[in-house]
Amino acid sequence: MSALVRRISTFLRSPRGQQLVERGRREMAKPENQARLRQLATRLSSRRR
Which segments show compositional bias classed as Basic and acidic residues (predicted)? Predict the structure, then answer.
């Protein structure tokens, strides 16, 4: 498992990984995407009960 985590962290430090992280931050700054994420979290939490 640690090999997988190491590969992911290496990727996130790479230029392409940094681009994806920045794109994710820009997308999550949009209110409509925040609402979608809240709805998904609500659905997932209600399934656990």
Answer: 22-35
What is the three-class DSSP state of 5? helix
Total of domains in the chain: 1
Contact 24, 30 (CB under 8 A): no
Query: Could you tell me the CA-to-CA distances from 34 to 6, 9, 40, 48 in Å, in that order?
Result: 29, 25, 10, 22
In this prediction the pTM is 0.65
Range of the domain at 35: 24-49
